[in-house]
Amino acid sequence: MTKHFQKLKQKSSRITCKKVIGSFLLFLMSGIAVAQTDTAETFKPHGQLWGAAFGDFAYKNNADILGRGANQYTGVPTSTNMFQWRRIYLGYNYWISPKFSVEFLLSSENDYAANLLGQAPNTINTTTGAVTLGGNGDILMNNKFAPFVKWANLRWKNIWKGTDLVFGQVNNPSVGINGRNQQTSEEVWAYRSIEKTVDDIRGTPVYDFGAELQGWFDSRGNFGYDLMVGNGQAARPENDLYKWFYGDVYAKFFNKRLVIDLYQDYEKLNWGVFTKGLNGPWHHDRNMTKLFAAWNTEKFTVGFEGFTNTLLGDVKVTGKDGNTYYRTTKALDMSLFVRGRILSDHKGNARLGYFARYDNYDPSGDLGSIINNGNTKSYVASTAAYDPTTKEQFVVLGFDYTPAKHVHFMPNVELNTYNSTVSQSAANDLLNPAVSGIKGTDVVWRLTFWYVYGK
Predict the structure, then answer these.
(1) Inter-residue contact 94 to 45 (CB < 8 Å)
(2) Fewer beta carbons within 10 angstroms: which end of the chain, N or C?
(3) Which residues of 152-185 are buried (b: 16+ CB within 10 A; e: fewer)?
(4) Structurally, how many domains does the chain consist of?
(5) What H or E segment, with its residue span, contains residue 33?
(6) Beta strand spans in 96-192 (E)
(7) 185: Cα within 13 Å, side-chain hemisphere
(8) Contact 413, 397 (CB under 8 A)
(9) 23 and 101 housed in the same domain
(10) How far apart are CA 263 and CA 290, in angstroms?
């Protein structure tokens, strides 16, 4: 009897244990289901309409008589004065689900052409109907601003842990303004309304159509990466066989005060194009490496940005032997900036600040060896923004008055000085007409205004 009761007791104990375990699992599963239901029920698709604009009253006090450079005031005559928009944004963000969001931005920008500010007019061939633009500006034939699609992308959040996938037209890793982190020079410089960053000035696309991975190596965003492959055409459709590859890694130290960012890109421009001569096919590409570092606090920020851009086969050389040769050159650019706070309101928000920046640009690379080659009859750069014959030094100084959040009035002055990279001589003048011993300076005084709404 005793053994019989012991067996019944063990069996009852096993049944009770199973019931307890089963009840616990049922409770756990119901909890997960409730949590999932709560997440689905609490999230509601929603959108946000926003915008931004900046412009100036500008007066050009002095102009380089040779019209050198690639900035927004190049070729603008002395004593020109104007009220002008330089950027107008209208954006819309929409959150489809906790995992997916979309971004759309229309932009109208001050890329002038069409007989404005001394530039050549648009023309129409009355026989063929072909249109020749006076410049490559965002201006309609009636000289009005033309908005275009700057961003249009889909973000898949945490496609794997810590990484988002973005597909469509989006900011590239050189700029990195993606709502995920702040590590690039444009974000830390914080005065795009005053001037572009050094690589943007030289034509590196700051937005492109492609696929991008934006990720963190840690949970706090102190270490991360940004990788992208795109068309390399900004807002324009693809027009060649080659893709632009972008990569960026960054690190933040000392409670994110110190930021270090390393950027790299590569694109084939012309590859395997037949060229009469001894070099064989024309192989033409670009390869940029850029380093950015900054110390960033609430009261002041200092930063450094520098790049080296190697342009394979970019300089077209006409030889005395009648052949065409393509030579490699390298451009260097270094930028230093500081910005800070002078006065704050009772809440600690900046009311009056200052900013200053200095850029030194030297595109000459191996130009000396090209000039000194006895077979060189003449030469010209294939990439206009990297003409190796002219060095530039850029300075901007100004103040930032902020009467309300996201509203800025900024008196400032820009100076851009041009010098030839080689000495002027009769021989050098024959090699390239752009060689000149004349030093030139563009000087522009501005009152810049900038506002953001909906954010």
Answers:
(1) yes
(2) N
(3) ebebebeeeeebbbbebbbbbbbbbebebbbbbb
(4) 2
(5) helix 2-42
(6) 100-109, 123-124, 131-132, 148-160, 163-171
(7) 26
(8) yes
(9) no
(10) 5
Whether 32 and 135 map to the same domain: the answer is no
**Residue 4 belongs to domain spanning:** 1-37
Task: Please check whether residues 50 and 17 belong to one and the same domain.
Answer: no
Whether residue 32 is found in the same domain as residue 80:
no
Q: What is the pLDDT of residues 403-444, one digit of tens each?
A: 999 999 999 999 999 988 776 664 555 566 666 677 899 999
In this structure, are 14 and 64 located in the same domain? no
Same domain, 30 and 169: no
Which pLDDT score, from 0 to 100, does residue 75 have? 82
Question: Do residues 315 and 279 lie in contact, with contact meaning Cβ atoms separated by under 8 Å?
Answer: no
Tokens describing residue 84? 């002008």
* Segment 223-245, tens digit of pLDDT: 999 999 999 998 889 989 999 99
CA distance 314 to 385: 11
Single-letter residue type at 69? G
- Written in H, E and C, the secondary structure of 358-400 is EEEEECCCCHHHHHHCCCEEEEEECCHHHCCCEEEEEEEEEEE
> What is the Cα 144 distance to its own chain's centre?
25
C-alpha–C-alpha distance, residues 195 and 161, integer Å: 36
Instruction: Tell me: do 201 and 224 sit in the same domain.
Output: yes
* Whether residue 131 sits in one domain with residue 18: no
Mean pLDDT by 10 residues, the chain (455 residues): 50 51 48 46 92 96 87 86 93 97 93 49 49 57 82 96 95 76 84 93 92 92 93 91 95 93 95 77 94 94 97 92 90 97 82 96 89 87 88 97 95 94 62 71 97 94
Closest CA to 6 of 369, 453, 291, 14: 14
Task: Report pLDDT for 25.
Answer: 45
